[in-house]
Design goal:
9 helices; two-stranded antiparallel sheet; globular; nine-stranded mixed sheet; TIM Barrel; alpha/beta; binds iron/sulfur cluster
Length: 266
């Protein structure tokens, strides 16, 4: 299985762009037979230096997502949630990583909060001494609230202004996104909100709506859209990679409205 990571973005987005078309770093997908399967559908064989700020991390993927983003770099990981590796196999993978100076884990997808046993996975990772980061689209504040005490860092994707969310992602319950943002603001040990900017999508009105939405956030990250031949919507395949100039101009819209403004991938 070749997974195109992205989360998305969610982390999902950065991992996707990095592994796109790179079979040598292809994630290991282990649909293990029998019961006792963990939420981890696959993982990057190589530790990551970019998915967890300041940490060398193992990147673990869950399968299933309730959004339908045409620009998704992980279409194999969307749809209904599925379990993956056996717990013993996951333990073996984590032990191998830990023996190679990996001291952090990133749980990404798909959308990890679609997996009801996600807290069990977080307990498992913490018991092995990993610092743990979660990538999420913010659609499940109830499970997110249960997970926060088990997390060191959360990255939540903000796809666009709320008025365009349903059109862009197929997800219309924007109240849940607001709830997740509030949870992060007041209860996360550390977090970031992040947006992958797509030039034909994020015009001036959308940028202003985004600025109003993320105002007061602890950390807000802007990152470029990277096109790819396997994106679900052909329209996005033809869009250009977001230019550094666009990112820098967009950055001006958010200056002074968040505690820390970060631009990645320029
Ligand atoms: S469909 Fe899901 S995994 Fe793909 S970009 Fe959207 S939120 Fe992320």
């Amino acid at each position: 299985m070749v997974m195109e990571s992205g989360r998305s973005g969610r982390g999902a987005d950065s991992a996707a762009a990095r592994t796109q078309g790179d079979d040598s770093t292809a994630q290991e997908a282990l649909a293990s037979a029998g019961g006792g399967r963990s939420p981890v559908y696959g993982y990057l064989r190589r530790p990551s230096m970019v998915d967890y700020p300041g940490q060398l991390a193992v990147v673990l993927f869950t399968a299933g997502c309730n959004f339908r983003c045409g620009f998704c770099h992980n279409p194999e990981l969307t749809g209904q949630p599925r379990l993956g590796m056996s717990w013993p196999r996951l333990e073996q993978a984590c032990d191998t990583m830990a023996a190679n100076w990996v001291d952090a884990a990133v749980v990404t997808g798909g959308e990890p909060t679609m997996i009801c046993s996600l807290p069990e996975l977080l307990v498992f990772l913490r018991a092995r001494g990993f610092r743990v980061k979660l990538d999420t689209n913010g659609s499940n504040p109830d499970l997110l609230a249960r997970c926060l005490p088990l997390l060191d860092y959360v990255a939540m994707d903000i796809k666009t202004g709320l008025s365009e969310y349903a059109a862009l992602t197929g997800f219309a319950d924007t109240g849940k996104l607001r709830d997740s943002m509030q949870l992060l603001r007041y209860h996360a040990p550390d977090y970031e909100l992040r947006t992958t900017l797509i030039e034909p999508i994020h015009g001036p009105a959308q940028l202003q709506e985004l600025a109003d939405m993320v105002r007061g956030a602890h950390r807000y990250v802007l990152q470029p859209f990277v096109p790819g031949a396997a994106l679900p919507d052909p329209e996005y395949r033809a869009y250009p990679r977001t230019s550094p100039q666009f990112l820098l101009r967009a950055r001006e819209v958010f200056e002074g409205s968040v505690d820390e403004l970060v631009t990645r991938g320029t």
